[in-house]
Amino acid sequence: METVDLAVKTRTQTGKAHAKSIRRKGLIPGIVYGHGMKPVALEVERRQLSQALHTKAGENVLISLKLEGAKLKESTCLIKEIQHNPVTDEISHVDFTVISLTEKIEVKVPIVLKNSAEALGVKEGGVVDLVHHEIEIECLPTQIPEKFEVDVKGMKIGDAIQVKDLNIPTDLICKLSAEEVVVALHPPQKEEVAPAEGEAATQPEVIEKGKKEEVEEGAEDAPAPAKQSSQTAAKPAAAPKAAAPKPAAAKPEKKE
Predict the structure, then answer these.
(1) For the purposes of burial, counting CB atoms within 10 Å of the CB of 39, is it exposed (0-12), middle (13-18) or buried (19 or more)?
(2) Alpha carbon distance 152, 150 (integer Å)
(3) pLDDT tens digits, one per residue of 127-150
(4) Upper half-sphere CA count for residue 132 (Cβ side, 13 Å)
(5) Which of 3, 45, 112, 209 could form a disulfide with 62 if both were Cys (CB 3.0 to 4.6 A apart)?
(6) Beta 105-114 vs 134-139: how paired, if at all?
(7) CA distances from 136 to 94, 130, 182 (A)
(8) Paired residues of 27 in beta bridges
(9) Do residues 49 and 28 make contact, with C-beta atoms less than 8 angstroms apart?
(10) Topology (CATH level 3) of domain 104-210
C-alpha cells in the first residue's frame, strides 16, 4: 500500500475557542499519539486531508506526517478517528496514531458488492442483505487491503455468503468466525392485505345495529305507559254530592 505525505503543524493552544478559530481559517485540529510518545496537538489543512482520504485506501491510508515544529520518532501513521460536525457533516477533528511497519495491527476493511442488481434471486423479487459492511482483520500495515469484493450475481433466494467464502489472503487474520454470514439473499417480504373499503365500512354499522336492537329489546320488556282517552284527559270526573241534613224533631211544650 502506498504512503501519502501530509504536512501538519503543532498547536500551542487547545480548547474549543481555539479550535473554532482555526476551523474558520480552513484548518482542522487534530492530535497524534502512539506507544512511548507524548501526544502532540496539531493542525492540518482541510484540503490536504481531504485529498489523502480520497485515495483508494480511504480511511485506511498510510500517512507519513511531515510535522513542523516538532520531531516524531516514527512518522508513519494511520487515521484512528475522524469526528464530523453533526449539522454540516464537515470534518471537525482528526486523530492519528503512529505505527510500526514491522508490527501487525487491526484494521477494518470495507465489503463491496458486485452485480447485486443482476443476482438471480433479485430478479425473482428477493432482497440482498449486506450483513457486515466491513470486517476486521489483523495484518502488517503494508498488507492492508483496500476492500473485499463479493460477487453476488449467482446468488439465489435463501443463499448466503460466509467469511470462509471470501477471498482473504492466508497471511491476513480475520477477526470474525469462518461461519459468520456476510451477505444473504432474503425472499420478498409479503405485504399485509388491507381490508376492503366495503368491509371496513360495514363493520361499525353492524355494531351500531346491535346496540339499537338491544335498546329496542329493552323497551319491549318494560311496561308500556297507560294511555288516557281524550274525554278523560279533557274533564276530570265530578265528585258525588253530599246528602242534605234532616231537620231536628221539635220538643213538646211542658204545661205548668
Answers:
(1) exposed
(2) 6
(3) 999 999 999 999 999 899 989 999
(4) 24
(5) 3
(6) antiparallel
(7) 21, 15, 12
(8) 45
(9) yes
(10) RNA Polymerase Alpha Subunit; Chain A, domain 2 (2.170.120)
Which DSSP state fits 163?
G
Instruction: Name residues whose C-beta falls within 8 Å of residue 97's C-beta, 6 or more positions apart in sequence.
Output: 32, 33, 34, 77, 78, 79, 80
Buried/exposed code over 13-30 (b: 16+ C-beta within 10 A; e: otherwise): eeeeeebeebbeeebbbb
Please report the beta strands in 71-130, taking only residues with DSSP state E, as ranges in sequence order: 76-84, 91-98, 105-114, 127-130
Query: Are the CB atoms for 78 and 18 separated by under 8 Å?
Result: no
- pLDDT digits over 210-237, tens only? 444 444 444 444 444 444 444 444 444 4
- pTM, full prediction: 0.63
Instruction: Cell 476486521: give the residue.
Output: 136
Concatenated DSSP letters for 168-190? --TTSEESS-TT-EEEEEEPPPP
Choices 2.50.20.20, 2.40.240.10, 3.40.50.2000, 1.10.274.10: CATH for 1-101? 2.40.240.10
Question: To which residue does cell 297507560 refer?
Answer: 226
- How far is CA 27 from each of CA 7, 45, 245, rounded to the nearest angstrom? 12, 5, 131
Place of cell 485506511: 60
Half-sphere exposure of 74 (CA within 13 A, CB side): 21
